[in-house]
Q: What sequence folds into this?
């Protein structure tokens, strides 16, 4: 799957999950122990906003946890996701460097980090709110491969990724990806 199309599919799934959060679920705990649902959505949308700016070679908005979701977080997520996809598509190439604050990496790495962050946090949101994450097997397999290249299996401090969880023989690509990132699929 071409990277911009993969990003579009992944962000659409995460947006669907954000829009499916019930009014009484915003304070629920999440698999990301330091964040409740609202904080996790704020982080996820804030990271997307930063990548949207980075893809367009614009200054990033700043700390994702300072992102203002407004009165309709689902609409905010949809808008930022659309901007993010549009900016990566307008960029047209993934060889040149992308700058996000103090971090700089090739565009291909940037778009994959952007996708991985939003996609996996979509699963986290689904777990916290009782929704079906509906993770795509092909996309999950590609992200699992990227994760294995970009994130060492150990040591892990547990802030962003926890110890690898064995998903078991014959596990789906989604379960393997989630297990590698320390989630219990």
A:
């Amino acid at each position: 799957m071409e990277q911009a199309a993969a990003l579009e599919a992944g962000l659409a799934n995460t947006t669907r999950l954000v829009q499916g959060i019930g009014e009484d679920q915003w304070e629920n705990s999440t698999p990301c122990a330091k964040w409740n649902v609202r904080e996790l959505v704020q982080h996820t949308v804030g990271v997307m906003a930063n990548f949207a700016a980075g893809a367009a070679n614009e200054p990033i908005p700043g700390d994702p946890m300072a992102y203002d979701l407004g009165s309709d977080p689902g609409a905010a997520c949809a808008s930022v996701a659309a901007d993010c996809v549009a900016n990566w598509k307008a960029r047209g190439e993934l060889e040149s460097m992308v700058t996000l604050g103090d971090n700089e990496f090739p565009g291909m790495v940037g778009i994959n980090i952007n996708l991985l962050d939003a996609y996996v946090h979509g699963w986290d949101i689904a777990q916290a709110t009782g929704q079906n994450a509906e993770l795509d097997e092909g996309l999950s397999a590609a992200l699992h491969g990227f994760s294995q290249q970009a994130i060492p299996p150990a040591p892990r401090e547990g802030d962003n990724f926890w110890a690898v969880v064995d998903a078991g023989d014959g596990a789906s690509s989604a379960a393997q990806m989630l297990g590698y990132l320390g989630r219990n699929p």
